[in-house]
Amino acid sequence: MADRHVLGLSGGKDSAALAVFMRQYHPELDIEYFFTDTGKELPEVHEFLGRLEGYLGKPIIRLNPRRDFDFWLREYNHYLPSPQTRWCTKQLKLVPFEQWIRPMLAAGDSVTSYVAIRADEEYREGYASKQKNLFVKLPFRESGIDKAGVTEILESSGVGYPKYYEWRSRSGCTFCFFQQKIEWVRLKERHPKAFEEAKALEKDAIEHGSPFTWSDRESLSELERPERMAQIVGSYEVRKARLRASIPINPLRPARPNHEDIDDVYGDDEGGGSCLICHK
Ligand code: SF4
């Protein structure tokens, strides 16, 4: 029987900062870092994980689901996953994690899982353990580390932000339905093949009677019309300018962050309640 320590990386900033934090403050723990790869991740996520491995000085274990997204899409009658029916997170993220730790728990090992819920996220719940020898710890909440603290950890360690933060606020699948309309526009600009793949999946789902489109109330074919994209970009720029004008100038911080925080621009209007497992 052993004490095992595991930390799941989503490819996002919070879990990466937590890995850095644990390496800095708990070097005595032999933490196993893992990433559950849906096979539909942005290339920037893989680049960022490589950078993080360099800092941590150890490999990040890749967990792959036995069956891919396309298999599960067929199983779910071609219905796209959605915030109401999030079968993708269950089949592509949770099940592979549970399959990985099952032999550890069966052997009687004690497994502690570290989760990156920040001190300013009181409303968030961690993964609820159903096993008596699986423990969940929230080090950021215990240490009072909030969003600014996460930025500080990533910048001061030299790990920095994932590159996709220049245009997108979340890690996860290229076609994640939690993304905001401006992020779909940018996916089309930066990764046109991934956009086309999402469009094809959506077309197939609609033909099979799926009630869901990837983006709320419009299909990607509608969203990609030039006039609609211009409207989305325009309204995003207006909101961003309004947000920036409302932020008091702090001489101790740069006037502009070196990455855009799309979530701050939209608040919970779009993409709110995004997935803790995929996006932290
Ligand atoms: S990133 Fe989005 S689409 Fe992918 S598994 Fe998570 S919730 Fe589902």
**What is the H level of CATH, i.e. the homologous superfamily of the largest domain?**
HUPs
Gyration radius, rounded: 19 Å
Ions and ligands: iron/sulfur cluster
Number of helix segments? 12
CATH topology of the largest domain: Rossmann fold
| Gap from first CA to last CA | 30 Å
Major beta sheet, specifics?
5 strands, parallel
| DSSP strand count | 5
Q: Strands of the largest sheet, in order across it? A: 3-2-1-4-5
Shape: globular
Order of helices and strands: EHEHEHHEEHHHHHHHH
Arithmetic mean pLDDT: 89
Give the low-pLDDT segments. none
Q: Helical content, roughly?
A: 40-55%
| Count of domain modules | 2
Strand proportion, as a percent range, falls in 5-15%
Could you characterize what this model shows?
The protein is built from twelve helices and five strands. With 280 residues, it is α/β, with parallel strands linked by helices. It folds into two domains: 3-162, 3-Layer(aba) Sandwich (Rossmann fold), CATH 3.40.50; 181-279, no CATH class. Helix 1 packs across helix 6. The protein is globular, with a radius of gyration of 19 Å. The two termini are 30 Å apart. The mean pLDDT is 89. The protein binds iron/sulfur cluster.
